[in-house]
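User: Teach me something about this protein's shape.
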Amino acid sequence: MNTVGDNSAKVVGLFVFMLILVLLIVAIDNKTVRLLTSIVLVISLVFTVAFMILTKKKNILDKIPTYEERRTIYTMDEGFVIKKAEQGQTSSGEKLNPREEFKELLKKILLLIKKNIVADSVAFYWANEDKKQMVFEEGITDLRFNFVRRYNWDDDALTTVARTGVPKVIGDINSSGSGDVIKYQSPRVESKSLLVFPVFYRNKTVGVILLDSHQAQTFSDDDVKNVELFSELISDLIGNYITKFDLYHKAKILEVISGIEKFDLGDLLERIQNFAIKVLDCSAVAIVLFEEGKWVVAHGYSKLGKYVEAGTEVKIEGTLVGEVIVSGIPKVIPSTRTQGKVYRFTENEKINLESSIAVIPIRYGQKCYGAMLFEHPKLYFFSSHSEIKKLETLANLVGMLLENENLNEVIESYFIYDEETLLMKKNYFYSRLNTEISRKAKHGGELTLVLISVDNVDYIKSTYGDESVKVIQPRIAEIVRSNLNSYDLAGKLDDDLIGVALVETGPNDAYIWAEKLRRIISNQEIKFEDKSFSVTVTIGVSAWDGERSADNFVEKVKRNFFKSASK
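Assistant: First, the predicted structure itself:
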């Protein structure tokens, strides 16, 4: 409806009416009628002027935005357009408020925590250092209480973690002291276990994640490691929120994991593929896992046609995926055009894509569950740190799921590194040594095995205690690793035995290397508690004698080594 047009017509009508009244006043001789007509004319004139003023004022007011309209105008400036990598605006052109998006993603993370860790309550509290307050942001609970929105710092568990930045686990909360430990419940309920983990941003504690349970001794060391992963993810989200960075990929990464009600490996791999192809706009993706004693391509897809068959065994030596699985470090090929021939999975593969490649290890703690390979048609797409961090976030969450579902249990003793010494575990060392033996048997060359054992272990135990020997091997392993070539192998064969395979090194050079190592170790100060001591080692050197099995080769050398050491 045209309000302006209607108002104009009314004003014109009043003017016509007043003009008729003026004519009547002039034409009528009767004084009484003329007086009445004049009064009506004055009233009409006043009414017309008032009507015009009110109409003008209303038009001005109509141009002023309402509260809701003003709110919309201002929030438009605070929002931003979601963009996919290299694709610009989404199909809907949806604009997000960063605050709302942060809360939504935080809620998804808390739901993930609750799904993967047995807990009755999960929540995130901000640690406001300026006001000395804990401030509730988001939480979920199955218990009958409300989260306290804000409370002053005290000596409770959340405040303690906020102040110190050190995680806190209480396995059995005393009922009489629960009021001192727990301040976030209203009304307070009988929670018996509590896990509180700090969330850092720029090396400062900005908040805490809390988990509680009505049962005692609920939370384990593995739960603490899981929460640490989510803490890093929340820290990343906080950085994105503060800088108004694009949160689109974080939301999609969480969707890959959070939508899985009951774990299904096929469903997970399909979700990773969809994320890579539809969100990152990759041209190809592959996931490599350990199955039935070997590394295989569990899932491979290219939207450009044939890529790699599922079930293809991956060659560890000389391939991108193999290098990442062994090192546990992401590998990026910015451009296959400038790199030359690239072996992704095997030396026999027939893949001729021009792309940018990123290979990310699927890790959990010191365990490697496999690797994910992504190819993007835009060269140098994976050259930025932020793109790799997105993929690492996804890989870490996948690693956590595989660990929680107890998949690939054989990996516990295969293709991983010992957590204390960072040396290869025994099975992996034997596997790599078998590869070297096969190569030497086919092409020739030298290979020497060196065994290192600590002397006088019994004396050290009796003098400094049984725990003292636990610090010796990690220190020796550190010295060994720092004196190796990149192609040499070093593994923990036993609690007091380290094996080193010197590739392309004969026994004479190996002996010189071993003697140098022995002197370095004997001059090292090893600290234990408030004491320190030095150790000596016995080193045996043996050249490869044509034995075709790493197991047999090592055992033969060990027998001779211990026979000599006992004399």
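Now, about its shape. Residues 441 and 546 are 7 Å apart (CA to CA). The chain has 17 helices and 23 strands. If you'd like, I can walk through any region in more detail.
User: That's plenty for now, thanks!
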